[in-house]
Amino acid sequence: MTQTKLSKKRYRDPEYMRAGLIYGVLGGFAFAVCAWGIGAIRLANASAGYPWLKFTVGVLLCVMIGGFAGWLTALADNGFVGTVAWFLAGISFCWIASHLPFEGMTYLLNRLDPQLRALHYPYPDNMDRRMVVVYILSVLLFTLAGLLEVNILDAVQRASTRFMRAATYLLVVPFFALAGIVAADYISQPIEDPLIVVSDLLVFNQQVKSQKLDPKVIAEKHYRALAPIQTLANRPYHLYLSSYDPQYFDSFTVLIDFSGQWAECTVLVDSVGNCKPGNPYSNPNDQGLIDALPTPTFIPTGTPTDVASAAEQTVLTSTPAPVIISLPKSLDNAPRYTISADIDVANLTFTGHSSVRYTNQVDSPLDRLYFRLIPNGQGSYGNGRLDVTKALVDGKPTPTQLSQEDTVLEIELAERLLRGQHVQIDLDFNGQIPVDFGGQKTPAGYGIYNYSDHVLAMADWYPILAVYDERGWNLDFPSKIGDSVYSETAFYSVDLTLPKDVIVAASGIQESKQATDTSQILHFETGPMRDFFLIMSPDFQVDSQVIDDTEVNLYYLPGHEQSAGQALKVAADSLHIYNGKFGAYPYSELDIVDAPMRNASGVEFPGIVLVADKLFDTPDNPSFTVATAHEVGHQWWYNVVGNNVFADPWLDEALTSYSSSLYYEIQQGKGAAAGLIDYWKQRYQTLLEQGKDDRVTQSLSHFESLNDPGVYGGVVYTKGALFFDALRQEIGDKAFFNALQNYYQAEQFGIARPEDLLNAFEASAGRSLGDLYLKWLYTP
Fold this sequence. Notes:
Helices cover 41% and strands 23% of the residues. The longest helix is centred in the C-terminal third of the chain and has 38 residues, at 709-746. The strands form 8 sheets. An 8-stranded mixed beta sheet has the order 11-10-14-8-7-20-23-22, with no helix packed on it. By secondary structure, the protein is of the alpha+beta class. Helix 3 runs antiparallel to helix 4 (79-112). It has 17 helices and 31 strands.
């Protein structure tokens, strides 16, 4: 009876309802501080744009909702009402927490800043799964706070001092603060972290300034990512989240305002992948918009220009631009090929001259050099020829000798070539192109050195320098089942004289064209590439798309108009995905070519890939998509990061095969990627049942000795891809992709070895992975 009278006495008591209002306001404020306030401090310290905007809006909404729930509970003076009121308030808080950073910030930034009005933050596909955790924990805490409000307000009423009243109110803070922390961890922090990562790298850059850094530090910090924007990187800046992968929420782009000049950096997990100048959202009609900096590129001939930077980068310029990133100084001494050739399409012959500047970059003195005449190995090159008719060393005739069935040309040097010394080799050469894959005599002909259906393909049509490494000169005989090009990164300047009516796709970019009544002379320049490929046809049609500052060109044949659009989209999407997952594609062009092929679905070359014409005939066949995504992936694993394709064919092929599953995963969903992986598992299971399993790490010659190409594909491509899938599951996405980015950065334009990749995964995971490596790589 006494308690009932007390309740009736407190009903509509202004002081009691004010206490309920304070309770609710304090709870809403505590939630907002933990959900967005701590993040706002981090963003402000990182020089993010509008760092307090999300907190300001969030705290106003939460204080109003919390104040109303607290006041309503005090008004009813009933624990059940308080439970219901705070349950509903908890749902409202969670909804705000999950939508304010996305739709809310899109709306606010679009209206506050004209230069950001094109920004759009889509609601992430996986946010619903995250919100299950947030809703369950937060609503539980809010409901408990509502159930306790009447008791806490009673204690406040009984408190004898202001200090005791304040201390009693603070009892509510842990419930709301913990709910805010959960919301921050699952929702806000993942989109704040990329800004922190970019800011940390910019701060590091400003601290080191012009100091010379250890290469390990450069790789660990991903310092080379700043090279394209190095001239801006020391200016004051503001950061804005630009975009992100809405499906997996693991790759982001960050927009940087350098006091009116802009740049954009990609971030994967917790590492900066690549940066580039310019603002993709700028409108040239807007007032006061950005003056984009010219993209650093290179001059293919002469001495590179040294640019002072902490990373010891070389920036070279030319127009148009073969490359879109800055180049490491280690390429200063890369081989430089200057080639001219006259191609007689009617007779399928060619004559040419090659001048190669070679610098010894090894400690051993060299008394001779070796060039590979790969087409003479026939096999996948058909039954054509490549012959050298004259050789000069620094302008003087020199003895030469052929070996390995005319696939190796030995050039004797007049004097031993010491480390750092260079020599110029001039070679006259000519060749014969096979017809229709070389006929039945060479059933392994792929169509890469071939003429069929008015398409002339010329792979490795000039003498290529052999690689000298710790094993000495690598003079392996060209392969019949795998790749045959093991070469160092080099620069190419190529002049081609051709019939007037052919359309040419080639490595690098076409810088000029001179035409006569019957012929055309085309001049090509390349960035750092491992070889130079060209293909031509009078029937080619061309479609293009620009993505990530790279022009993707599709050369397709008549009758393939419908499938051409699909091929172009797959190639462009793959390039964009791999840019985010691995690091920046370094060139301004990527060519995809529809070509007659046999015994291969596609073949990769630097800056250009072939996809078999028969796949264009059936665009709905998954092999069409897989082959395109696979060959694009080789631009990262084979071209930029090289490896010995004879000793370690798995190092590029297995990783590239797995890379194609990332296209499916990100572009079509995890279900599509799981379908591809299940196919690989079934294919590998068949291999096991047939007793044909083998070590992934076997050499190419080992697989050739088995006389069963299916084993090579099943083990290297399929089992190798399954290894990377198992590895990713073992160490998690963060460590997996961080390792790939570190590997890509550290081994750019070099020749990687298996231990480089495997050590990168162990370093990223922070533990030994020997048992996993033994199971998948070293055990049949």
